[in-house]
């Protein structure tokens, strides 16, 4: 093989591949070969091919080596920068004696897989209108090679007065391969709710871009925004009517003089004034 052969990987890290070797028999008689395979058995690959082949005279025939894989975690842990050397030996024998041996060597490896997986952890504190809270973005790398985050974007549904701050901090962040059950890269973001925000539950989606495969993946959470309660101590219309009634009652309770009482007081005032005039010298 002139170059490294890359096996195929599916989403579950199952390995599949085939190597085809050709044998050209220019002789006038049949060629019988015994085939052996030499490779590093610690690699997560298994090679399966025939133990012997018979090539008719003056023909060119081939045989196939099937490649499969081991455990999924072992396959994912195998670096795309690594290689497994496979040596295929074809030995011609005549009885018990070895007549000739030819070898073919080649390298086998896996393709690079990029798979960033974002996850959001909701805020620990209550988000009130006119305030802010912090929440966590955790990015794991479930691929088999290092990747980086190129962009970060937030989409908020039904809550135009809510915003996400700090997404610029995720750009150009390197995310190494995450081990099984391990944590990824954590970034602290912030949600800010304006003072005019109404009380409701908001759906927040954060999307990140991958440098490796130029794809975008997202995660979402629901966040409840609590708005301040309105003032219930303000007087109602009914209270205004009662106050007016109370005012009228108070006015009617004042000690106003009746008409005949007022006339009597006026007569006494005039008589008193005339008496003072008559007594002048």
- For the secondary structure, the number of strands is 18
How many structural domains in the coordinates?
A: 2
Average pLDDT figure: 85
* Number of helices, counting only DSSP H or I runs of 4 residues or more: 3
**Strand and helix order:** EEEEEEEHEEEEEEEEEEEHH
Distance from N terminus to C terminus (CA atoms, Å) equals: 154 Å
In CATH terms, what is the fold-level topology of the largest domain? Immunoglobulin-like
Oligomerization status of the protein chains: single chain
Structural class: mainly beta
The CATH architecture of the largest domain can be given as Sandwich
Would you identify the CATH H-level superfamily of the largest domain?
A: Immunoglobulins
Largest sheet: 5 strands, mixed
Q: Note the beta-strand portion.
A: over 45%
The first-level CATH class name of the largest domain? Mainly Beta
Globular, elongated, flat, extended or rod-shaped: what is the shape?
A: rod-shaped
Estimated helix fraction: 10-25%
Give the radius of gyration: 46 Å
Detail the poorly predicted runs. Answer: 233-281
Strand order of the largest sheet: 1-9-8-4-6
Brief summary:
With 281 residues, this protein is mainly beta. It has helices at residues 72-77, 237-252, 259-278; strands at 5-6, 8-9, 15-25, 31-38, 45-48, 52-55, 59-69, 84-94, 97-109, 116-121, 127-128, 132-141, 147-157, 162-165, 174-175, 185-193, 200-210, 216-226.
